[in-house]
Amino acid sequence: MNSCTDPLRLNESRLFQELKNNLSKHIKDTRNILEIRDNVLYVWNAKDFCVMTLNVAATRAKSGEDVPYQKLRPTDPPIFDVKNLLINETGTQLALWGNLGIVLMELPKRWGKDGTFQGGKEEILCVVHKFDHFDATGEIRKARWHPGSTNDSHLLVLTSDNTFRLYECEVGNTPRLVKCWKVGRKPFGSPSKIPDFSSLGDTAVDFDFATPTLCKPEMFAGRDMNKNSVVDWNQIEWPILILRGNGEVLIVRGNLLHDSHEVPVVSGSLSMYPPTDDNYGIDSCSIMCIQTTPPIVVIAMCTGKIYHGILLKEELNDDDDDRRYGSTYSLHTPEEALYIYECVEIELGLFFADNDEKYNCPIHLRWDKDNKSRYFCSHNAGIHMVTLPMVSQLEEYINSPEDNDASRLPSLSNQSNSQYLICRRTKHTGANEATPILGFGLLQEPSVLVALLHTGDVVARSIIDLHYFPKIEPPEPIIDKKERVNKEEFDMYIKRLLKRETSQPLIKMGSKIMSPRECLQLLYHATDVFRKEHFVKHDHVREEIGKRVRALKVMKTHLLKELDTLMETKKELHQTAERLAERYEDIKDEQEKLAQRAKEVLRLVNYKEPSMSPVERAEAEELKKMETKIEEMKIRLLELKKKSEQQTGYTENIEYNGKKKEIVFRGDQEKTIKNSLGHMAKDIKELITEVKKLEEETFIFCHTVSLKAQKYNEKHHWNLP
Q1: Could you tell me how many helices (H) and strands (E) the chain has, helices first?
Q2: What is the Cα–Cα distance from 598 to 324, expressed in whole angstroms?
Q3: Is the pTM of this model over 0.90?
């Protein structure tokens, strides 16, 4: 392909050559199987069942070289047709989804040269998790990562049966269904000619997250919201805007992430102002919410019309309060309303006349994360870029002082405009001929759009927005307000010079045939407009730029001379600093030597001084007392040693004498003694027996005497004790 449409030479890389050979020739609808995140390009290869990645920044840096690419192979490849590739913000997980299913693939770590996966392996096996909660008869309409997830692991899925499913997809774990709720009745297949909800446009076709709000704002009335301790993360909710096919917009509120028991509140449909008969179209296909204050909502129709509106709160009367109710399918009355301020109509193809049947197809919206003032539309007829001047006007209005007047309100004079970046369809293209865009990504600094066509070719085009200039805020020096001069920036000056009062409109020819003379006059008129309104202004701008360049060259020459002078001065100062440093080191060494000598002198003087100080005398007295105590302790120690020796000798004598006094008997003596002891034992035993007998006799005698005395008393009636 020509280098003008492929300056990065991606078509020559092995990745896109392999992808071109593996692409199916029967793709009819626009999809998004290509994504660029952190200068890394991801694309799904349906034939090889893998995600191919390429570092586009390395390709840009190494012009003419073939940068190797990597393949991320899922452990369980999806069996359905993958139409979308969705990466979370942290770059840890990738969702592959189509109409019939969705799988989640964990991305490996990046390190090494060019930030490749796992240091540059050609093929990497990645863990894949499947979602098993979908009905076989339903289809997936949209899937988005929840922006309010603290660990970037919550995925919200919208299905064709008007059902939302919120999954918690933690790395390393199977996706867990957190919540499931309906936003309308479930469509049904009608066997007769009676239309169902799907044909009437009552089914949800797309959704997006609005700007975050407080769950209960009345709790924070009168409190400083700038303090970090005032609002907790759990008290913030992310409203969801839901688009139906008939153009109605619903809103879902509720803290979906932190309160699993809370039922989301579905409100709808939003009132649209100014009201129209067709409610701004009956073939809506896509919705997008730009994160501004207040949020800007973009609604696209299949006919090519795109409506821009601002989401604001609606003031309701007291009579309308009784309309707020809720049930399984009934919806609450919303507090917000959409205020449509403009409509942009993009061309779905070129060379169409008024009497020609216009081409219609779904439009997919995507906003630029680095530039909120523009977004992109991809469809079967190509890619458009739409700029939004309202974004910068809202930011200026919000950041303006509180005492602003009505003149600072956003103006509708600067209307949005569209640029047809890539055209894939014309009037002469066949009705059945497929011209979809399979995906596109944005490469930043400078901004380059990389698009994958259905033929497998890649188109890379630089994106230039003449109506947007990045806001650079350098640190402001302290300048007296009286001497401050309001100087216009050069880019704003050029933009003001290029601003024209008239423009060359898109001429729509009627059924009347124009003569050659009228055509020639029309051509002369268009040429004259270009000469007077375009070429003259461009010549003026060229002169101004030339003046600016010459002034900058003169200033550059002067600054270079000043730089040379400053370099010489710097060199002299450096030499002076070196000399001063050497002198400082010498002086420091001399000072240290003198300090050592002074210490030595003081020591010698104190050593030879005859008189002592009071402290030294006190210490000397203490030393003398300690010496006296030491002598006394030595004497006592000698006495203790002598006493110990005497005791030891006395003990030894006692033991010796005790050994000497031992009595030793002969054998006959022992026998005689034993016999004597035996006789004595017998005698003692006999004596004990006699004593016992005497005790018994004495007891009997006493008992007999007592009985006789009792009888005698009874006989003589004596009361003796």
Answers
A1: 9, 33
A2: 96
A3: no
